[in-house]
Amino acid sequence: MKQVVIDTNVFISAILNPLGNPAAIFKLEREKKIKILVSHPILQEYIKTLSYPHLQKKHGLSKEQVSKKILRLLKYGKFIDPETKLNVIADDPDDNKFLECAVEGEADYIISGDKHLKSLKSFSGIKIVDPAAFLNISA
Length: 139
Description:
Layout: E1 2-6, H1 8-16, H2 21-30, E2 34-38, H3 40-50, H4 53-59, H5 63-76, E3 78-79, H6 96-104, E4 109-111, H7 115-118, E5 122-123, E6 126-129, H8 131-138
Parallel strand pairs: 1-2, 1-4, 2-3, 4-6
Antiparallel strand pairs: 5-6
Helix pairs in contact: 1-2, 2-8
């Protein structure tokens, strides 16, 4: 089973468009074809981003519904508590949390639409791809 780290933009896109490629990745998780790795800093960013007023208007989820989505990740995903701090992405240091989780969790992929992460293409043997590329690989 492939282990993946999901960048915030992919997580949010899956919620906003249940028919898009990001949502299809979460379907793979529900079918037990992949395992999603998450860390506390990643979960915090998911919650913070979902709480932005302009996104709340788009997704229409209550705080309880957001909590249920996060709890589902904790229940079916794999929680990683990275001890290693990386400083790889100088232009956007917040993106390093995805690398830290992926390295410590021995992920196979980081799935992201973020230009800083995608420009790396890979890190420590972990491939960094966008949702469409991941779905092509997983098909």
